[in-house]
Specification:
The chain has 258 residues and is an alpha/beta fold. 25% of the residues lie in helices and 33% in strands. The chain has 7 helices and 11 strands. Helix 6 crosses helix 7. The chain is globular and about 60 Å long. It binds S-adenosylmethionine.
Length: 258
């Protein structure tokens, strides 16, 4: 529940608006093309780490399906997200992929995949218990010899306050946003993304939205301990991308032993 310290405009579940009633604006906020370079990097990391064959991939927290729209060219993708509107966006983009409504901490599909991929949605794990639950979900769905790849937006050791902005248009509609990533309490395990979005329909701004998303911020050692406790053999690897400052971001590549 929102409490007395919650800034005005913040819903009980903080991502209700952007991933909820505004989900069909998502492609204007983050287009599928935006994910091309990073999807290639994730593909290479997955292929490098798992035992062949690597055909089936489960993505937890797949959102609008931006990464999946590229990964599906090489893998058979099953996409899980807890927001029905975001699954709808992804279904339109990726009709050939299987879509499942579920929470990455608890979903159980009762089958295994060659790989499990958890992109930025893992940042919504805001406690070590939540992170352990998501890692457990990845483990039970990863076949022996398979690989799980986790790509959090930030690590405790390398986190830096920053802002970014962007947006797109599709003719009739346009969206512009400012996102401010900062850490109100450096002693806890979270930081926040404060978003402001301007939505334009025709020649008029039809809506402004302010929304706070709370993200987990864990140390590398915590990640590696949680991955090992789940049964993975894991390591951190630098994330290499033309728009990411070298050394500023890491991903976790975890292999389920045979
Ligand atoms: C930024 S979007 C993901 C975009 C995605 N990486 C892509 O390639 O398009 C974040 C998504 O995480 C989802 N999410 C947040 N917490 C979740 C949870 N506990 N289980 C499943 N999905 C979750 C949200 O519903 C949202 O769709």
């Amino acid at each position: 529940m929102a409490n007395d310290d919650t800034p005005r405009g913040i819903a009980d579940r903080p991502d209700d608006v952007i991933y909820g009633e505004l989900a069909d604006w998502w492609p204007l906020l983050s287009s599928a093309e935006h994910y091309l370079e990073e999807a290639h990097a994730y593909r290479a990391l997955l292929l490098d780490a798992g035992d062949a064959p690597l055909r089936t991939v489960l993505e937890l927290g797949s959102g609008g399906g931006g990464n999946a729209s590229h990964l599906k060219l090489d893998f058979s993708m099953t996409l899980v997200d807890r927001a029905p509107g975001m699954l709808g966006v992804s279904r339109a983009l990726n009709p050939e992929c299987e879509h499942v409504l579920g929470d990455m901490r608890t979903v159980r599909l009762d089958r295994m995949f060659d790989a499990v991929f958890v992109h930025d949605a893992v940042s919504y794990m805001t406690s070590l218990d939540d992170l352990a639950a998501a890692v457990r979900t990845a483990f039970v769905h990863c076949r022996p010899g398979g690989v799980a790849l986790f790509a959090p937006d930030a690590l405790r050791e390398t986190f830096r306050e920053t802002t970014n902005c962007g947006g797109n248009e599709d003719g009739a509609r346009a969206l512009r946003y400012l996102q401010w990533l900062w850490d109100p309490d450096p002693t806890d395990d979270t930081y926040v993304a404060d978003w402001v979005c301007l939505l334009r329909e025709g020649r008029a701004i039809s809506r402004t939205v302010y929304e706070r998303h709370v993200f987990g911020l864990f140390a590398r050692a915590d990640w590696l301990r949680i991955l090992a406790d789940a049964g993975f053999v894991a390591r951190a690897r630098p994330f290499v991308h033309s728009q990411v400052e070298p050394g500023s971001l890491e991903v976790f590549v975890a292999r389920r032993p045979r």
